[in-house]
Design goal:
The chain has helices at 3-23, 30-40, 44-58, 72-89, 94-135, 139-175, 190-206, 212-228. By secondary structure, it is mainly alpha-helical. It folds into two domains: 3-185, no CATH class; 189-229. Helix 1 crosses helix 6, helix 2 packs parallel to helix 4 (72-89) and helix 4 packs antiparallel against helix 5.
Amino acid sequence: MSFYDYIVVAVLGGVTALDKSAFRMLAGEPLVICTAAGAYLGELEMGLMMGMIWQLIWMGELPIGAAVIPDGSTGALVSTCIYIKFVQNSEQLAQLLFALALFIGVVSAYMGGSFISDKRKFHNRYLNIMDKFAKEVRPAGVESVFIVGMAEQFLSGAFFASFLCFIFSTLLNFTLHRVPVYWDSLFCSMSVITMGIASAVIVDLFWNRKTLPPLILGLALGFVYLVLI
């Protein structure tokens, strides 16, 4: 990955962190962030595919209260960028790289979840300072702390995403050329299996009277799309 690739990963990682912690505008969801990464890397369709897979896989994970859940968006971003960049240079190992990207995405997500949990403890300091300024009726102080907190969220998300990309890219650069090409055939059905698992997650989440009609409609439209292409 080039220097500019890491810059883009950092920006998308920062946007993801801000969206997950403050704005909640869905800009940091895997479907959105992976599609954006794919568009930048010149593989919009591939980015969209990875985004759909990760969105379906992590859809059941909700940040309720102080629960520690995997950071699926960061994991999806890292895995998508690594997969696209390495497939562009090693297309003969596309299926193996897809399997590795899934592994990297899961590992990155759980690492991100732990990272967010640790940041929550640090953010208590911001709350204490803001509470102090509020009691003293100093709105400018509250606003300053808020801006600092948002900046810290963006920068920490940017650093974490780009750091993971650097680590996993370095490991793959060191090991991938040692892998026999025939290993790729062992993972020939990996993308189909993964999409099947993701679809099973959707069925499990939406199999009830209220959401069954849109689920059936979505499956029907998906089938029509597959027939048309």
